[in-house]
Batch of 2 targets.
Target 1
Amino acid sequence: MEQLGKEEVKETSGSELRTVLRSLRRSRTATFGLIYVIALVIVAILAPIISPFDPYAQDLPNRLQPPSFPHILGLDEFGRDVLSRLIHGATISMQVGLEVVLLSLLIGVIVGAISGYYGGWADMVCMRVADIFLAFPSLVLAIGIMAVIGPSIFNVVLSLVVVSWPYYARVIRSQTITLKKMDFITAARAMGASGRRILRTHIIPNAIPPVIILATLGMGSAILAEAGLSFLGLGVNPPTPSWGIMVASGRDYILQAPHMVISSGLIITITVLAFNLLGDGLRDALDPRLRI
Amino acid sequence: MTLDSDKVLLEVRNLKTYIETSSGLVKAVDDVSFDVRKGEIVGLVGESGCGKTMAALSVMRLLPEPYGKIVGGSIYFDGQDLTKLSEGEMRAIRGSKISIIFQDPLTALNPIMKIGEQIVEAIVSHQQVDKNEARQRAINLLHSVGIPDGKVIANQYPFRISGGMRQRVMIAIALACDPTLLIADEPTTNLDVSIQAQILEVISDIRRKRGISVLLITHNLGLVAWLCDRVFVMYAGKIVEQAPTEALFTNPSHPYTELLLKSVPKLDSPKDKLATIEGEVPNLIMVPKGCRFHLRCPYARECCRAVEPDLVKVGIDHYARCLMQDSRYNVEWK
Amino acid sequence: MLEYIVKRLALVIPVFLGVSAIVFIIMLNTPGDPVLVRIGLDPNVSPEKIEAARRELGLDQPIYIQYFKFLARLVQGDLGNNIRTGRPVAQDIMEAFPRTLILAVTSILLAIVIGIPAGIISAKKQYSVFDNITSVGSLLAASMPNFWLALVLILFFSYWLKLTPISGYGTPIHLILPTIALGAALAGTVTRFTRSSMLEVIRQDFVRTAKAKGLKESIVTFKHALKNALIPIVTVIGLQFGSLLAGAFFVEAIFAYPGVGRLAVQAIQQKNYTVVQGAVLVVSISFVLINLLIDIIYAYIDPRVQYE
């Protein structure tokens, strides 16, 4: 029976992946989202190689230079190449986004699955705690935490994880509760499988798919949140080229050098849009009932 | 088959209703003709998916837009061809001259609107009546469908009352403006057996006391035997047999009808296997060539595969769409 | 209905406690001497006074006792004193909060006035040009960082076109750009939810029944379809209110709009921790109360909820 469970999961995930990709390709917007995200990941990884200039190299006599050749997006207030900083900013954004999503997912899965499967007071306690975190407007709590512990990439990830894990926990928990009642779980239990084993091999693999949508959209929110925190000076530390910091410095020179503010904000918008389009596309692909 | 307009209330002629789906064009109603005379209860019978609901929705012009369309034929009611009316003219007829009740009264009623309000709305939209009188009429309507404490029920939300009562409410709404024709689409399918009989009583009463004609859509031949004066049997988008009820049951002239009758369990029959009809309901997108029933027909012959039968007269007011009944195909059948 | 309200109110209390506990825990970690944080930076304070204050504030006592004292002060409306000015934080916040509320309300109104009609039209004319443009537009609005939108709006309308003031508060004109900056994302979300909710509702049986009764198109769309479709829309507005409040921090800072958000952002830069704590608390508790209000509105629209 245990083998069957694993096989069930493997079979569905194999053919499902193909169906998902096919469905995504049918939507122009979802395809755009997917291609953009993949491109962004590549840019983020290869940043030091493809970046035309050193993002930290200053050229003060030419500061605030508008877009021109060879600096396609111009220079910032320290004469640094904007395009190069944006490219390296992609690395920061992707790094923060991925870390936040993966860690929140990890905590959310553990808490949610245990909560949903064992029920009882463990469930009550976990959900009360999750509810309390959810009672805060997410970013406000993150701002509060960052104000106190100080800006750094690590702290940004930490505060955003603290704020995001309840969403994943809730979804995993309701998935677990639904799965728990299914026949193949009862069968596994009848064969003497322990709770932990059931969770690990049967429930968790089958509970993941809807969470993938949440995770994709979560990447978008995490990137947006990091940009916001950095904008307020509560995120990543300068001179690290976070897109949010670039918008903040762009603000200081908005009249003399609008290219700074426009380029940095635009890249955030398009990136978040891409993740949202991809997330929407995945939602349509994985749950055709919701497809409109 | 033109009928005396004095006696005929609804005449559907050669109706074709097609539905566009992502898998293809579904020919839900493919050249169907039936009629309802004044004061009659007519049954439209068939398995699920045979197109009978679409036929009913076509009469009301309530097809799911934009996929469903009437592509041919005419629907004569009260001297007018309903297929040619504008939406505004059709709206004047819906709910006031022709009413329809649906299968699931829980989903068919607005869940967040009080019952009284839903009835009053029907009255007020067609008749110049003030709110108070409309409310009183609503309570009387509830009374007439067998709900004695109308005032209490009118103040409730649909989810608070039982399924049987909900269906009575639907009937009350349908009767709000004194229609001449009531279409009932599987009115008892979702109800408990004990409640079914009550609802059928209500419908039977409607004809008796108010002279309202009823078009009963169902897959249940038992209901048909009980309530209907005449029956039209549908299969795969076509009428395959039509007859007065008694004639249909005593002299079924189409293999499908025969099989339908055999599959109705009777209390006094020996307790052996229930007869079932082999095969599945045909795909209305890829309609089989020849007779639509030949793939499941125990009597099918070569000719059935090639020729689509016409409706042939087999008795008074009794027609069947089968080559066996057609004298032109004189082959040893049985 | 009343029973339902009371039940929900009762549930709010443990959430209040939880929220205050978390804010308390966060504030325990502020850098610097909490005594100075509490009594203000008065250079003339003698060491004995500081010690006395320490004892008075119970900072030598176990944490849970400190928490209860904190809670007790909270309930009396004492949020501590502004480190810089010495004024009670509660006063600062009482001054600033209504202004944030005004901004929040106008933003929500903007979102509803744009979002619901756009969503209805998109749903009725599915796949039309309008629908496609609106779909992308609403998603775009929801993806834009509000602080960036604010800056772009200022650049365009205040600097280049000189139509609106760059910053400040006082007249309705001052509200225009901040409202757009804050409400755009919500407008996008409301549009999308209205569209999908309407599409789902339009397909339901009771809408067919309404048409079968011969009701006018407008009655079917609004009285039957929209009212039912509003249920998830109202829920989502409640959830998004949190983002709205958070967004206010950014938008107010950029427009120098003197609400709680700006107060908090300035306080962060000045390391004025009591103000930050007070702002986070007040904003979070308002969010809890707003959600309670949303739940009540929800129960009013959908009576089924009360009987669960």
Target 2
Amino acid sequence: MHVSLTHYIIVSAILFSLGLFGVITRKNAILVLMGIELILNAANINFIAFSRYGGLKLDGQAVAVFIIILAAAEAAVALAIILNIYKRFQNVNVDEINTLKE
Amino acid sequence: MIRRGALRRREDWYGTDTMNLFDLVFYFFAIVVLFSAGIVVFSRNIIHSAFALLFTFFGVAGIYVLLNADFLAVLQLLIYVGGILVLLVFGVMLTNKVINVDIKTGTMQTLPAALLVSMMAGTLCGIFYGTDWFVVEKMPEAATTIKDLGEMFLTTYLLPFEIASVILVVALIGAAMIARREKSATK
């Protein structure tokens, strides 16, 4: 069976599911960020696969470039927030930081 | 069958035989991506997760190359591996006591999450597999995408391109402001 669009998007679906699993189950906030990066990579694979096999020209790749830019900005800001949380609470476990709930 | 020397031309990768080199390379990268992503998600050690994420990014870059997105593959290596991954490793080092070598982390609500995610993965794969996609098999003529992408960024996508640059500046300044050690606030 030849590799075609279906193969790529099934890989991206599994990658997305793994990333979502990481986001849901992990306690450490940095591992939650890693899950988000996996999800963004899965979205990028989808965009580029449809750009290649969908008969569109390069619009999918242009959108993928913007996704990479936003991922970089998001990682920088999120890491800064996590460092601040660590300075205040001395850990970064997302289930123990519940001051706003009380 | 694949003849030796017949693989030089790119069109030969789309031959009629059942399993050619292109498919093998794709399956290799797919296995690398999914296996290392599994390590990222399931490993108890944060450092192991970070290094497995390196292989995930490399594998995704390989998949981009197979999809004729050469510029995107280089961008993936430069930004994800060179930027975001280093940032994440810095985050791990700064938020854990590295003196005790094994950096462990816990998980929560594993069973319902596994149930939900596997149901969703099954649904997505079923939909993707069952749909009769409109597929254009023809290879693009251009050898590289850099020239066309550059023209698109300066014509069609000019406004999003400029907004993205402003967002990057704002995000970097904001991150520096947030993460800066305050003189009076902390003790």
